[in-house]
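Bug #77: duplicate submission created two jobs. Keeping one. Sequence:
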Amino acid sequence: MSTVLAYTSPAIGHLFPMTPLLLELRSRGHEVHLRTLSSRVATMRSLGLHAEPIDPAIEAVPMDDWRARGAVGALKSSVATFVARAAHDAPDLLSAVDAVAPDLLLVDINAWGASVAAEAWGGPWARFSPYTPALSSPGTPPYGPGLRPLGGLAGRLRDGIARPVFLGAAERAVRPRLNQLRADHDLAPVRGADEFFRSAPLMLVATAEPLEYPHPDWAPGVQMIGALAWEPAAEAPDWLTDVDGDLVLVATSSEYQRDEALVRAAVTGLADGPWTVVATMPAGLTDLGPLPGNVRVHEFVPHGILLERAAVAVTHGGMGVTQKALAHGVPVCVVPFGRDQLEVAARVVHAGAGARVRSARLTGSTLRTGVEQALGCRAGAARVAAGFDAAGGAARGAELLESLLPSTVT
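Kept job's structure:
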């Protein structure tokens, strides 16, 4: 069988969705090597993967887009982070290639330098995206501001005007540095994001219709395989057995983005409601003062355990936790703060799987209203869950990756 080398950016929200795919490849007899966050190496090794940490210099480049103003500013900040990390993750991947001698590479979409190095390597490789990639597509709004699809001439005019506003500035800022990196690896320059992201023979996207908009032009190079939910095995906390009735899960980002306001709103807006509210703050706990009797705040509790009991999930719009909730058939109230979260929120509402509350208008009252609206969207959440299942998941992703391999190594 083949040797697969997978490479992730320093984000749990990218590693965890990739994990079911890696485990599926391993179950098919492939030898799977992984380069990822140093803090997760031991966990990945315990699963039978050959894991090593990425270059510490990559983790030392912070994601501080939360400091930027507006969607365009945040997008520029994210781009600057990926470019800065690229100077380290490109040689880091090549070093891993020398050590492992893989037959196939699987590279996280946010590891830009590693993607360039993979392309220059010349062997079969694929990108993995745990979120909707910023690809243009007929009938789809430009990526970034969370616009809803708008048909007809009005939609085409709006999208034609909006795309250069939201993506043009970021592309102009990054293109010279990205193309210099490509030139350093003897690769031709790219004209924009579409060309760069489509440079891989295959991109696997961990979502599916009806949460995602239709993209008939994506195939065959871009394939949606559904949500890939994974988290480390853990026992249910003792206090969960004492909880009667339904839960409301409130989840903030694992990469800090000043979204503790979401938990503050939940503490005030959902106090003394008919649910037990469990908030998780993996980027670090914040002092919230005295808590109501029906509210618990923890740095970490496995979301899967809570979602088995949840009536609704309140999320920051991170693709991982939002899709994990929907895969359980749990509707969501999304409060996007930035990054891809505006796009996630737009898709949740479009699919009838939940509600959106604007972070600029977030209060205890508006959050409670959003939760009550989301509670009426269970049918939409069930449709999304069925769509994820139909997309094939990790098994389908592994089949597509295997199709890239020469027959002599499959």
